[in-house]
Specification:
Length: 148
């Protein structure tokens, strides 16, 4: 069995979690304040708007890492608000942003950019070492070659 975290390790872990939570919350709040979109709305709209063709609902769920039922409920709420339409085909369903959804996504992208700059980039060290370590951590998996 692995030893528990030391007090210093636990403090660092808690700081990491709090920092990431604060960044996510700050960005999400800015998007909501500027556009009325939730982070889930934003995630769905950006992927549907950026897709060359309307994505299949299952492919969209896979991209988001969501269950089919979670995505289905989200899409129902968004369709009720006129942000997306779902089209059934014989083998699947596709999702497409409406004009209203595209306009909301464009506004949200601007709010997202401003929030990321204010909440993260302006507050994080700009040196290459910090971002190199973040890249390394983002790709690291215990036991993988990248984790070394």
């Amino acid at each position: 069995m692995t030893d528990l975290l030391t007090a210093d390790e636990l403090r660092r872990w808690e700081l990491w979690k709090r920092a990431t939570d604060e960044v996510w919350a700050g960005v999400g709040q800015e998007i909501a304040d500027a556009t009325g979109l939730s982070t889930a709305d934003f995630a769905v709209l950006t992927r549907t708007v950026e897709a060359a063709v309307p994505p299949r609902q299952q492919a969209l769920a896979d991209q988001l890492g969501w269950s089919r039922s979670r995505l289905s409920r989200q899409l129902s709420r968004m369709a009720e608000r006129g942000l997306v339409i779902r089209t059934a085909t014989p083998t699947s369903s596709t999702v497409e942003a409406t004009d209203r959804g595209r306009a909301a996504a464009a506004s949200a992208r601007r709010a997202h950019a401003a929030a990321v700059r204010a909440v993260l980039l302006a507050r994080a060290p700009s040196d290459g070492q910090f971002w190199h370590e973040i890249e390394r951590l983002a790709g690291a998996r215990p036991g993988s070659e990248q984790a070394s």
